[in-house]
Write a structure and sequence with these properties.
With 273 residues, this protein is α+β, with helices and mostly antiparallel strands. It has two domains: 165 residues, no CATH class; 99 residues, no CATH class. Helix content is 35%, strand content 21%. It contains nine helices and eleven strands. The strands form two sheets. Strands 1, 2, 3, 4, 5, 6, 7 and 8 form an eight-stranded antiparallel β-sheet that branches. Helix 8 runs antiparallel to helix 9. It is globular and about 55 Å long.
Length: 273
């Protein structure tokens, strides 16, 4: 998988093309039907720019077969510098839009809401029944449809802020912190039904809960969740599987990243007051 690390600068066309050439594919997979309408992802990127959303990250999965090269699934992350959530505690959060697509006829343009924390370069994906995700079929794509979709997503941002504030207002006991950490680890390490995560993988929960930076110290759900989420995604912890001590690795596959992030957010919501 090729990627640019997220940053506060918008990527230009050359940078996007370097890490995500699939976004510029002019022809779809040969396996699609004659009725398939091909809309290159870069057309959406250009239209999003007209609406004030620039690209801050671009990724694509590796093509497993030669005939799928140039049509594989890819992800583009957009941010609008005019839309920012300034917390009273100095925690600045930028809402962002995450677009996934492929050119093999298997995916629509899918848009998901996310948040980017400036304090730790930590991206959180929000996609559940409260915020939802939105799709645009290639066949029905045009600029006005995109504008309406973005307008609807921006109108839902107050729900995102409300959720963040609820997290900040929720204080956790030590027992709740450990419970959250166990459930968070279960989003990355799957166990068989009936098994407990701690019976299969030995992890120092205190290390999972230890803040990396002073800004994340605190007992509120927002801080604890962001500490745990960063550890789980970045692989910043050790664990014992069987008799071997292992070092967790950073999740690099964006499909797994999105999936784990969504599950982590669902876990955190269970603890919200």
């Amino acid at each position: 998988m090729t990627t640019y690390e997220e940053n506060m600068e918008f990527l230009n066309q050359e940078q996007i093309r370097k890490v995500c050439p699939t976004a510029f594919t002019e022809k779809p997979s040969k396996e699609v039907s004659a009725h398939y309408t091909h809309i290159p992802t870069f057309r959406v990127i250009e239209d999003m720019e007209k609406l004030g959303w620039g690209v801050v990250n671009a990724q694509q999965v590796n093509a497993r077969k030669s005939h799928t090269k140039g049509t594989q699934k890819h992800m583009i992350t957009f941010r609008n510098t005019d839309i920012v959530v300034e917390g009273n505690d100095g925690d600045t959060v930028y809402p962002q839009i995450i677009l996934t697509n492929s050119h093999d006829g298997k995916n629509s343009f899918t848009f998901q809401a996310g948040m980017y924390r400036l304090v730790c370069s930590n991206g959180l994906v929000i996609a559940d029944q409260e915020f939802g995700r939105m799709k645009i079929r290639h066949m029905g794509y045009d600029f006005e449809t995109l504008r309406e979709t973005m307008t609807e997503m921006v109108e839902q941002l107050p729900l995102t802020v409300e959720s963040m504030n609820k997290f900040k207002q929720t204080k956790l006991t030590n027992e709740q912190k450990y419970d959250l950490a166990r459930k968070a680890l279960a989003t990355r390490f799957k166990v068989q039904e009936g098994q407990k995560i701690e019976d299969v993988y030995k992890v120092d929960l205190d290390a999972i809960l230890a803040p990396v930076r002073k800004e994340d110290a605190g007992d509120d759900l927002w801080n604890v969740f962001n500490v745990v989420q960063e550890k789980v995604i970045e692989g910043d912890f050790e664990y014992v599987s069987g008799v071997k001590l292992r070092k967790a690795r950073r999740i690099k596959n964006f499909k797994q990243d999105l999936k784990v992030n969504q599950e982590l957010y669902d876990v955190a919501k269970e603890f919200a007051a």
